[in-house]
Design brief:
The longest helix is centred in the N-terminal third of the chain and has 18 residues, at 33-50. The chain is built from six helices and two strands; from the N terminus they run ααααααββ. The protein is mainly alpha-helical. A two-stranded antiparallel sheet has the order 1-2. The chain has helices spanning 8-17, 22-29, 33-50, 59-68, 72-78, 83-92, and strands at residues 98-101, 116-119. Residues 1-120 form the Carbamoyl-phosphate synthetase large subunit oligomerisation domain. Keywords: ATP-binding, Ligase, Nucleotide-binding.
């Protein structure tokens, strides 16, 4: 834990599962407590999922898992099911992502460019979808300075 390596986050996860406190991890790693708490939230939710089987994976738990950022494959692994079964259940529950638009002009005027992303942390689409669609896969990441 004290030495930063590419495996450190896995050791952090194991430490959190073993019951290490945020304060103890901070004293060992000097990672900001805010980040450690966020990481703990993820680990705690994963442990909740591991305590369930797919039959007990109710709508609100599945939705929260998607909102936290778990993939169907990760959820399936935690509840000892398959990715396909979780995806099917998610569809039956009506849990689908919403399309949102990146505001490329910081609300100075209405954005007209279609830089889009999908999220489970929304309740409506930003754009209507009246007909045919084109999806661009692998267009790259958006980050500060990338001139979106």
């Amino acid at each position: 834990l004290e030495e930063p390596t590419d495996k450190r986050m896995f050791v952090l996860a194991a430490a959190l599962k073993a019951g290490y406190s945020i304060d103890k991890l901070y004293s060992l790693t000097k990672i900001d407590k805010w980040f450690l708490q966020k990481f703990k939230n993820i680990i705690d939710y994963h442990m909740l999922l591991e305590s369930l089987d797919q039959q007990n994976l109710k709508h609100d738990i599945l939705l929260a898992a998607k909102q936290i950022g778990f993939s169907d494959k990760q959820i399936a692994g935690a509840v000892k099911s398959t990715e396909l079964a979780v995806r099917k259940q998610r569809g039956e529950c009506g849990i689908t992502p919403f399309v949102k638009q990146i505001d490329t002009v910081a609300a100075e005027w209405p954005a007209t460019t279609n830089y889009l992303y999908v999220t489970y942390n929304a309740s409506t689409h930003d754009l209507p979808f009246p007909g045919g669609h084109i999806v661009v896969l692998g267009s790259g990441v958006y980050r500060i300075g990338s001139s979106v």
